[in-house]
């Protein structure tokens, strides 16, 4: 039987998607996270060890991940280090998720598929519209997320329900955003700049579970405050930003 494919279909078949996972002292769960990855979607899984003092890096390497190290603490610092590594052999699409077991790797295909198809430049997983396990997000997180989304709407005209970590973006779009934040404002920066650049962005509902182990940010009042402060200041900072390309 003779198979016929359009050029667009052939392009989709040969597209590569890499996954970045920032990790800090996640030895209790990182193996489980890597084992849960769906087959046939991700080319390379890169775990960015952000200064762990436990066995996170070794366990991740044993689980088949590429491990790179970023000793400077910070969510954005870890992401920047991962992106620099990907520059050696750039993928077509980059996906992002957390290492603490709160994200469901089964949702990766739902996040990546519309980007592969060319329908979106950036797809964001919304925990708010998805299946959120009781206790996975506390009150301060809900309030902070709501405030950030109101700012996104008022400053950027961008309707959002969440700034969740599970997301996928084309490589060229990521480069165009020229990401700068090295702390907790990284996801907010991406959404704000994508809106300013006129990119095709949408959310899909995703599951969110209670993290395993001790939370370093959302589990403390001070950590939640710092994250919220960084997110809000980031959204204000980039309200006049324009892409160079």
Low-confidence stretches: none
Radius of gyration: 17 Å
**Mean pLDDT value:** 92
Domain count: the total is 1
Give the CATH topology.
Spore Coat Polysaccharide Biosynthesis Protein SpsA, Chain A
What portion of the residues fall into strands of 2 or more residues?
5-15%
Sheet with most strands: strand arrangement: 3-2-1-4-6-5-7
Number of strand elements:
7
Main sheet attributes: strand count, strand direction, barrel closure: 7 strands, mixed
Structural class: alpha/beta
The CATH H-level superfamily is: Spore Coat Polysaccharide Biosynthesis Protein SpsA, Chain A
* CATH top-level class: Alpha Beta
- Please provide the ordered H/E string of secondary-structure elements: HEHEHEHEHEHEHHEH
Helix content: 25-40%
Looking at the overall shape, the CATH architecture is Alpha-Beta Complex
Q: How far apart are the first and last residues' alpha carbons, in Å?
A: 45 Å
